[in-house]
Amino acid sequence: MKDYIFKLPMKVRDYEVDVEGIVNNANYLHYMEHTRHEFCESAGLSFRDMHCRGIDPVLSRVEIRYRKPLGLGDSIVSCLNISRRGPLFVFEQDIYSANGTPVVEGIVEVACLENGRLSRGDVLAEAFAPYLHKES
Hints:
Layout: E1 6-11, H1 25-42, H2 47-52, E2 55-66, E3 75-85, E4 88-97, E5 102-114, E6 117-119, H3 122-128, E7 132-135
Parallel strand pairs: 3-7
Antiparallel strand pairs: 1-3, 2-5, 3-4, 4-5, 5-6
């Protein structure tokens, strides 16, 4: 497992599996989103507070590689790193099984709207400064 700035343990719940007994592909996106929300809150910016301030992070692009299926009751660790590319925040998000086996590898690009207009996301950049790996 690589080094990450944020890790969130989770467990697969019964409603996340399909008829085959494996996690439906869309649920991995939910795990990743939940991890980003928890990271933002740990950095002092809950999504509710951001929205109340007129700041809305929105997905610009998601790339995901499924490596190993998960099943009911599996324990996982959802991890992330964050960097910046121009006005975009780029989240490297990986999910591992409890034994460290890669489950999902993802790249999520997030843009920032301020009062409904696309912005450079300076407020977010300031809050995320201690966590940003590189800025370009």
